[in-house]
UniProtKB/TrEMBL annotation:
Residues 259-293 form a coiled coil. Pfam families: Transposase_24. The lineage of its organism: Eukaryota, Viridiplantae, Streptophyta, Embryophyta, Tracheophyta. The keyword Coiled coil applies. The keyword Ribosomal protein does not apply. It comes from Linum trigynum. Keywords: Coiled coil. Residues 231-257, 310-329 are annotated as: Disordered. Residues 242-257, 320-329 have a biased composition (Low complexity). PANTHER family: OS10G0409366 PROTEIN-RELATED, PTHR33144:SF52. This is Transposase.
Length: 329
């Protein structure tokens, strides 16, 4: 294959790669995610400091692959996830609470990792904020109750294959049941079995379509992602604005205490800002007063210089007059 030739990426209606080249595409992004020149370990993906690197990532990808603009979000989301997974693996392999920062840095660093990036990352492992986030992430990972059986194949690719085989795109309930069932016909765990059995029971009790059954069993979607739709689609793009709003409203209601707390913080910050503004006004007033005093001192100093100059000129002229009188005598 010509190294200058671009690979065409097949995508579904959501812009998510679903063709036979999707695995290669994802693997390439995984390599990019481990390259410190494109994804520095010491930066925060969500902050503005990462924007130039995101642009570099997209510039690189565009030299190798051809895809629609709608796929850009999926690309960055995939790199972000692979980059986060990479940092997690590094911490799992190298971090030891019994060792000091210096002792870990004395160990040969991972191949391909930039020295300054590695030093910053290791130091961050020992901060209280990082430890807090690690506990939250570990708890979230332990709460993942429905692992799928697709392996390295993405949900989008699995759905594309099934669509070609049957001529019909599988809905989310069909996708969930098929991708959470082992080859021997058993479900991946008891929780998954409970969800699927509940959907079957609801189908017998009422006239629901599969999408309605899926939503009843799983509940509202989490903001920013959709179950059994692969990486990329959001509730608003997949289910429509009303579903997204319902999900957001549900989340907002369940977190009302947090909202109240945030509102209180905003009020406190606003009060602090007002106090700061008053201090600035007072400081400016003080500076103006100081400037007036300086101007007054400058005026007095100039007046003093003029008087001194006049006095000196007078003393110089006086001897000259007496000298002339003596000459006349």
């Amino acid at each position: 294959m010509d190294p200058n030739e671009k690979i065409d990426v097949e995508v579904n209606k959501h812009g998510t790669p679903c063709g036979p080249e999707s695995g290669l595409f994802a693997s390439f992004l995984g390599v990019v995610a481990r390259n410190g020149l494109f994804t520095p370990l010491e930066l925060n993906w969500r902050k503005a400091e990462f924007r130039p690197y995101k642009a570099k990532i997209l510039d690189l990808v565009q030299t190798k692959f051809r895809y629609p603009a709608a796929t850009t979000k999926w690309i960055l989301s995939t790199v972000n996830r692979r980059w986060s997974d990479y940092k997690t693996k590094l911490k799992s392999k190298y971090y030891d609470p019994e060792l000091s920062i210096e002792e870990i840095l004395a160990i040969p660093k991972p191949e391909g990792v930039i020295d300054t990036h590695w030093q910053t990352l290791v130091n961050r492992w020992y901060t209280e904020e990082f430890q807090r986030l690690s506990r939250i992430n570990a708890e979230n990972a332990s709460n993942m109750k429905t692992p799928h059986t697709c392996g390295r194949m993405s949900i989008a690719r699995w759905k594309a294959i099934k669509t070609m085989e049957t001529g019909k795109e599988p809905d989310r309930l069909e996708t969930f049941e098929n991708t959470h069932t082992r080859k021997n016909g058993t479900y991946v765990n008891g929780y998954t079995a409970t969800l699927i059995e509940k959907a079957h029971t609801l189908r017998q009790e009422g006239s629901f379509d599969n999408e309605q059954l899926f939503q009843k069993v799983h509940g509202p979607e989490h903001p920013g992602r959709v179950r059994c739709a692969g990486l990329g689609p959001t509730p608003s793009t997949y289910l429509g604005p009303s579903s997204s709003s319902a999900s957001i409203n549900s989340t907002t209601t369940s977190n009302s205490n947090e909202v109240d707390a945030l509102r209180s913080e905003v009020i406190e910050l606003r009060n602090e800002l007002m106090e700061a503004k008053s201090e600035v006004v007072e400081l400016r007033s003080g500076m103006d007063q100081l400037q007036m005093e300086v101007d007054t001192l400058k005026t007095l100093f100039l007046q003093h210089l003029r008087r001194e100059k006049g006095s000196m000129e007078g003393s110089i002229r006086a001897p000259s007059s007496s000298s002339q009188s003596a000459t006349r005598g």
